[in-house]
Amino acid sequence: MDTFLSKKIKILSFVTMIMVLYIHSFNFTLYPLNILPNSSYSFQIQNFFSFYICRIAVPFFFILSGYLFLKGINLNAQIYVEKLKNRINSLLIPYIVWVFLWTFFFVIISQLPFLKNYINAPFSIFNFSIYIVFDIFKSPICYQFWFIKDLFFLVLISPFLNFILKKVPILFLLILFVNLVCFKMDLLFFQLQSVFYFSIGLYLALNTKKFTFNTFSINYKWVGILWVLCYFFIPNPIINYTVPFTVFMGIIFIWKLYDVINQENLLFKYFYHSSNYSFFLFAFHEPLQVSLKKIGFAILGKNEFVGLILYLIIPIIVFFISINIGKILQKINPKIYGILTGGR
């Protein structure tokens, strides 16, 4: 992979990670006002950014993960075992460690009288059992780790996906697409949308001679305009059926937009430096963010304006807290930081 593409992937992964902060910043349901969503300016703004613009983040991660998994290799038993060992270190171990740390941290601080009303502890220290252990790893309090769980599952079944994408790629992707649009069925513990987007990345990697990242000459401005207009002009009953199309438009837009950004810009340089802490930001931002939302409403009151201000500001606060704690931890104890981030 050339330096430009590597840098591009790193920056865009970080930008979409910030999008995840705003997906999780949605707070309209946290304040029980008698306001219908359609008549609430706070809901409209939050919904537009969290569930339309930022919705591209998770599909982008899965597509990119699939592409990088198979890029430049012919998957066989030996390579599969090597990749599986690597993913145990980079995905499974961080998953176990972070779920354990966040769970017991929240169980402990939930015992503090002045904080317990803002903390949703997964269990009480007085009723711990082996069944609770299973539950906390199946549905962790740091709920963003569903992505890591799904990604590790996809690595496990990658030989099957690799085989079927070589034999009947269009049929397989079409079946997953129809399910995503019409039926929305999932497996017992995993989401089929994850399989769909990851498989697209695998398919691109398997067909790099047909598709390169710069295959299509597209004017990013028109793609961006069309992407935004779709939100305002596609009727609500239909818009859910167009999700994959709008997601792809958004991904194409940010991919092409990157090419015209001035890389000497100070903000770009800051983002590039901070992108080294993308995984730590991913792991650390929840359940910290949801707790800050509850504390914010408790202090400032519950109304539309407060909800909108918290929606905009809390991700910024969480961003700086997470990045700086990551930097401090990396400096103090690189070994522990390496375990927490899977060697990233």
User: Given the C-alpha coordinates, what overall shape results?
Assistant: globular
Backbone structural class: mainly alpha
Total beta strand runs:
0
Distance separating the two termini: 18 Å
Major β-sheet profile: none
Mean pLDDT: 90
Q: Count of helical segments?
A: 17
| Helix/strand order | HHHHHHHHHHHHHHHHH
Fraction in helix: 55-70%
Beta-strand residue percentage? under 5%
Oligomer designation: single chain
Quick recap:
With 344 residues, the protein is mainly α. 70% of the residues lie in helices and 0% in strands.
Which secondary structure elements does this structure contain, and how are they paired or packed?
Layout: H1 3-23, H2 41-53, H3 57-70, H4 77-109, H5 130-138, H6 146-156, H7 158-167, H8 169-183, H9 192-206, H10 220-233, H11 236-239, H12 243-258, H13 266-274, H14 278-284, H15 288-300, H16 304-332, H17 334-340
Helix pairs in contact: 1-2, 1-3, 2-16, 3-9, 4-6, 7-8, 7-9, 8-9, 10-12, 14-16, 15-16, 16-17
Architecture overview:
With about 350 residues, this protein is an all-alpha fold. The protein is about 70% helix and about 0% strand. The chain is built from 17 helices and no strands. The longest helix is centred in the N-terminal third of the chain and has 33 residues, at about 75-110. It is globular. The model has no long low-confidence stretch (mean pLDDT about 90).
